[in-house]
Amino acid sequence: MSDLITVTGVVLSTMPIGDYDKRVVLLTKERGKITAFAKGARRTTSALLAATNPFVFGTFDLYEGRSSYNLRQASVKHHFTELAMEQPGVYYGFYFLELADYYGKEYTDEIAMINLLYVTVKALLNPRIDNKLIRRIFELKTLVIQGEYPQMFACNQCGITENLTQYFEEANGILCGECAGNSVHARAIDGSTLYTMQYIISAPVEKLYTFAVSLKVQNCLDVIVGQWLAHHMDRQLKSQTILEMML
Ligand SMILES: [Zn+2]
């Protein structure tokens, strides 16, 4: 006997199985990251054909077997098929899905990551927002959701909230000028970059993609967020390698 359950989530990736089937990785609110078998999903007549693609958000009815899930039907809320036309936007998108997959766990409520992915894919479709900035916002907010992000609101050594002028990854984030002293490892961080990072860390997801930054701030975010992520992950993602080749 298997039970039918309904989960809310997003398709992170799919893989063809045999001639007509697919294996689908879903990030869900109810069960965390799960893999489901979608029988016949590659047949042109299948009701699952459109629902079993990356970037599909919706609800999914699954039979829960002893060791796996079987996708029975899906109700699509958003396809985001137009993202496929965005170059290089779509490569950013695949990277974001893989980053969510990397951090996704079974039996965890992934609603925060699902919502972040949703607003981020929408931002990729908005020509007014620079993809490079979207990338750093998504990465930093992902780290916040995972609870392993740089602390940027008070000096990580003495705790004061003024004169926060130096960033030092080994100190877990921001330092005041005095604590940083003459450390050659700390890097000067300007007020705009600090404020941008504080905003990304604390803003609700629906307010994330509402601003632009100067080239100087972008470059600083590239270094700080890029290095933090590289040092906190145990491997480079395939989609990240592809994205960097595309840029
Ligand atoms: Zn200090």
Description:
This protein is an alpha+beta fold and 247 residues long. It has 2 domains: 77 residues, Nucleic acid-binding proteins (OB fold (Dihydrolipoamide Acetyltransferase, E2P), Beta Barrel), CATH 2.40.50; 131 residues, Up-down Bundle (de novo design (two linked rop proteins)). It contains 7 helices and 8 strands; from the N terminus they run βββββαααββαβααα. The strands form 2 sheets. A 5-stranded mixed β-barrel has the order 1-2-3-5-4. Helix 1 runs antiparallel to helix 7. The chain is elongated. The mean pLDDT is 96. The site of zinc ion has 8 residues, from strand 7 and helix 4.
Question: Uncertain regions: pLDDT < 50 for 5+ in a row?
Answer: none
Secondary structural class: alpha+beta
Largest beta sheet: strand ordering: 1-2-3-5-4
Q: Which CATH class of the largest domain applies here?
A: Mainly Alpha
Work out the number of β strands. 8
Supply the key terms.
three-stranded antiparallel beta sheet, 247 residues, five-stranded mixed beta barrel, 8 strands, de novo design (two linked rop proteins), OB fold (Dihydrolipoamide Acetyltransferase, E2P), alpha+beta
